[in-house]
Design goal:
seven-stranded mixed sheet; binds S-adenosylmethionine; single chain; VC0802-like; Rossmann fold; 2 domains
């Protein structure tokens, strides 16, 4: 008998427009990752389960990870129900009725409520015929959220289980969040984008500076870039998951300084608490320095090999005096004078014209939506 490992199909779900950044993040981690397709908002992988599972905690850009359970042609609710009663649910569920995420397009079966009711009934009846093992009754309360995705496209139904549990941008640590935080996976995508451009320029970064760092999202995402997330994942409960050694958090990254500055007293206190939470994971003292003060007075001597990446107030959620355009130009001038980083990146609203500074050359922009506001990350290199 051949020792061929059974491959499953996985979908790594990303915000639309971030597919290539997520692909590069995965390839950095797993150079020969078996990527079979890149779709709008997803990467498809064909891999043996455990081989794939072990990379999940390291992925910082995606929002969800799905594993395909079954695929079938389906044009009516009776066939859908019958198909679902034949799935071996005890490989993916533990006696609970999961949440459902249903999408149907160009198909005869399109009523999400009917589809969900039918799926719930099929799973309940499956449990009657194949009761879940008794030992699972104790873990049901503590299980991460479980979601079954039903996607029906052109009468072709795909059933998948979400391996993530909570959305992947929820990092699991009990953190203080500022008034207008950037979502963690979006901050990670901004960092991935900047690092790729910096690498293309033949450079490397040794320090990260955020002069308006709020709760510290850019600093922490940069710190954790090549490290696994410390949180629950649904896949760790599946029988195909083989227990791994506990990760010992020992920071050995190339970036040796993480420098933050924040003006608000309350936010600064929260930032200090967040540092303590991250510090508690690690065996050594983390190279994070934070200052409580006005960014216009913030001075850094870490100019060479540094990336200043910041998300200044937009004026929408955090008030800005005067014109936002002049304000961003002024900020760029101040950071040029006081910090002179060799790379600078601003996350600002898309409608604002790009700020300019004579000492910086514009490299590229990443456009996306941050909490409903269209934004762009602009990256410059010092001339
Ligand atoms: C859009 S938020 C940044 C949020 C941050 N990226 C995060 O994820 O928490 C802007 C932050 O800049 C701070 N801020 C505003 N004006 C400032 C100034 N002049 N100096 C320093 N920080 C300032 C605000 O208090 C706020 O925390």
């Amino acid at each position: 008998m051949t020792d061929q490992k059974i491959k499953k199909t996985f979908h790594i779900i990303t915000p639309v427009g971030f597919e290539n950044l997520a692909k590069n993040e995965l390839l950095h981690l797993w150079p020969c990752a078996p990527i079979t397709k890149l779709e709008k908002g997803a990467l498809c992988i064909a891999s043996e389960e455990m081989e794939f599972f072990r990379h999940i905690p390291y992925l910082k850009i995606p929002t969800k990870i799905l594993m395909e359970i079954d695929q079938f042609i389906c044009r009516d609710i009776v066939k859908f129900y019958n198909k679902l009663t034949k799935v071996k649910w005890n490989q993916f569920l533990f006696g609970q009725i999961p949440e459902f995420a249903i999408s149907a397009k160009n198909s005869r079966l399109f009523d999400s409520r009917k589809i969900e009711d039918s799926a719930k009934k099929a799973i309940s009846n499956y449990y009657k015929a194949q009761p879940p093992q008794k030992k699972y009754a104790d873990i049901l309360e503590s299980l991460p959220p479980s979601t079954i995705h039903v996607r029906i496209l052109d009468d072709n139904c795909t059933l998948s289980v979400d391996l993530s549990g909570e959305r992947l941008d929820k990092r699991g640590l009990k953190l203080f969040t500022s008034e207008a935080p950037v979502r963690e996976n979006l901050a990670s995508a901004c960092l991935q984008f900047s690092f790729e451009q910096i690498k293309n320029q033949g450079d490397e970064i040794e320090s990260i500076i955020d002069p308006m760092c709020g709760s510290g999202t850019f600093l922490f995402e940069a710190l954790m870039k090549d490290l696994p997330q410390k949180r629950e994942f649904y896949y760790k409960y599946l029988s195909s998951y083989k227990l791994e050694k506990k990760h010992v958090y020992n920071y050995q990254g190339r970036i040796t300084k993480f420098i933050g500055n924040e003006i608000s007293e309350n936010t600064f206190k929260g930032l200090e608490k967040n540092i303590k939470v991250y510090q508690s994971l690690f065996t050594q003292t983390l190279p994070i320095q934070v200052i409580h003060g006005d960014a216009t007075h913030f001075v850094s001597t870490d100019s060479t090999s540094s990336l200043l990446i910041t998300n200044p107030p937009y004026g929408k959620r955090v008030k800005v005096e005067g014109s936002t355009k002049d304000y961003f130009d002024e900020l760029m001038d101040i950071y040029d004078k006081n910090c002179a980083p060799n790379y600078m990146a601003f996350l600002i609203p898309k409608i604002i014209p790009n700020p300019k500074n004579k000492n910086y050359r514009f490299l590229d922009a990443l456009n996306f939506s941050n909490g409903g506001i269209d934004v762009k990350l602009l990256l410059w290199k010092r001339k």
